[in-house]
Amino acid sequence: MRTETAPRPFGPLARRIALYAALIVLAAPFVIPTLWMVASSFKPLSEIFASPPSFFTDSPTAAAYGEAFAFQPFARQYFNSVYIALVVTLIVLLVSGLAGYAFARIRFPGRNLLFVVVLIGLLVPSEVTIVPLFQMFKQAGMVNTHWPLILVTAFAAPCVLATFIMRQFFIALPVELEEAARLDGLGRFGIWRRICLPLARPALSAVAILTFLSSWNLYLEPTVYLTSPELFTLPQALTRFTDPYGGEMWNTQLAAATMTVVPVLVVFLIAQRQFVESLAHSGLKG
Amino acid sequence: MGRADAATGYLFIAPQLVGVLVFVIVPVGLAIWYSLNDWNIFTGQLTYVGGGNYQAALDDPALPSVLGATAVFSGGVVALNIVLGLALAVMLNRRFKGAVLFRTLFFSPVVVSVVAWTLVWGFLLQDNGGVNGVLALVGVDGPNWLQNGPTAMVAVTFTQVVRSVGINMVLFLAALQGVPGELYEAARLDGADPRRIFFRITLPLISPTLLLTAIITIVGALQSFAQIAVLTEGGPGLSTTVLVYYVFQQAFSFNDIGYGSTLALMLLTFVMVLTVIQWQLRRKWVFYED
């Protein structure tokens, strides 16, 4: 606690209670939707909109979880989201690791100009490029495949943000280490691979978290490019749990959403410091 | 290592540079070309119409409403995001039991997928859903949130803010921790009260972060597609049809690629203007940062 010299209307205990009360009330809309989602996914459909609302049910059932897999190829869709996000993350780590290092450390003519050209990739919203990109991918026969989701995420905005973060990191890295390695006869690639990349682990993990999340959350692109349910990714699949009359199958949808959200939340709770730091980096983007 | 080294440099940046050219710069060029043409969806033929699509935008009776909704949504998101983010940061910027837990809770929606988050809120905001259920417990007859214009706008704004304010909170926390403690010390010795300290010392010193965050938040709000698509589909009527959703509708629901591209370029212009302002401000205040 800070020492206060100014007179205060409340004692420290009352102020502390007021602080906790304010924080708990404010936290409700942040926490309750997720808890409510999990709780409701175990309710029978008839109790989903029970009044008064209750977290608990007398007859919990996991039937909605089974339905989620029966109604759509949900396991396949889950696999699609995971493998696409992993492939994109690996490509981005490689591409941004190389480009970020070169923009920070190697002198070559036109370096600053080319960096500005690359930064344009951060400035242009994906909603602007998607109309022409759709035509380009159609020409290439890649509509209704995963290629657009992989290629665009792996080279456009998320990758440029990664290149930016990696460049910032390598600019701050002391140059002496590299000079020692050079005297030992290592070339540029060797220095990058053996010296710089291992030192860049914090920046690389920030990049990995950010990239994985942007691929995992992608919604516009799958909606535009994919038409076959077995190719869908999770965000897109979640919106398709509707009965033949267009009504929402709430408990199935909530069960599927729970399966999508909970693993990421668990990883977040375990590694929350890295998450918070990496997303703070992303907030500084230009 | 002069020339060979330069060659290595080009080699290292080549994948990123080519990627940006193919997946960003060429498409922007194409979008400009499409905006000057009419696209016949059945024959695939482009017909040059010059400024025809731009004229169509001026004549479009829906566009003023769309731009109005965009302004209300982005403005609302920014105002709430900054005020709430700053309030949370100030509350959590002291040592007390549970501070880290609360920071984690306020940050957690950031890692929940946008679509899942929005679906759950859509569920809670049904007429007979959880939000109105809770309101009924305290004797309030809640509105049918998603079925009338003003409350639907409140709903999309609020859910967007709650999902993303954690990022701003973290940025503000970092800024608050950068304010030198001696300044507070001196102000307190001079007998300044906490409110005065906040407005005269804290706020001016973190104002660069505040402004930059505001612009980043507006740019993000201008690109909120999934939230609108999942929660309201732009409705009821046009009440939550923001520009980015309108672009999608024109280009992919109505297959009007020329007009869709014209609107997309309008969106790009807004984002570019805001980003240029941000870069200018950052340059001006660069010695304030860190």
UniProtKB/TrEMBL annotation, chain A:
Domain ABC transmembrane type-1 as annotated: residue spans = 78-271
Organism of derivation:
Glycomyces artemisiae
Q: Name one GO biological process term.
A: transmembrane transport
Q: Which GO terms describe its cellular component?
A: plasma membrane
Q: Name its cellular compartments.
A: Cell membrane
The record's listing under CDD domains reads: TM_PBP2 (cd06261)
Its taxonomic placement starts with:
Bacteria, Bacillati, Actinomycetota, Actinomycetes, Glycomycetales
Name of the protein: Carbohydrate ABC transporter membrane protein 2 (CUT1 family)
Q: Which family does it belong to?
A: Belongs to the binding-protein-dependent transport system permease family.
From TrEMBL, chain B:
Where in or outside the cell is it found? Answer: Cell membrane
SUPFAM superfamilies per UniProt: MetI-like
**Mind telling me which Gene3D superfamilies this protein's record contains?**
MetI-like
Q: What are the transmembrane regions?
A: 12-36, 66-92, 104-124, 152-176, 197-222, 228-248, 260-281
Arranged from A to Z, the UniProt key words for this protein are: Cell membrane, Membrane, Transmembrane, Transmembrane helix, Transport
Topologically, how does it sit relative to the membrane?
A: Multi-pass membrane protein
Annotated signal sequence is none
Domain ABC transmembrane type-1 stretches: 67-278
User: Got a GO cellular component term for this one?
Assistant: plasma membrane
PROSITE patterns from the UniProt entry: ABC_TM1
Protein family: Belongs to the binding-protein-dependent transport system permease family.
Q: What is this protein called?
A: Carbohydrate ABC transporter membrane protein 1 (CUT1 family)
What is the originating organism of this protein? Answer: Glycomyces artemisiae
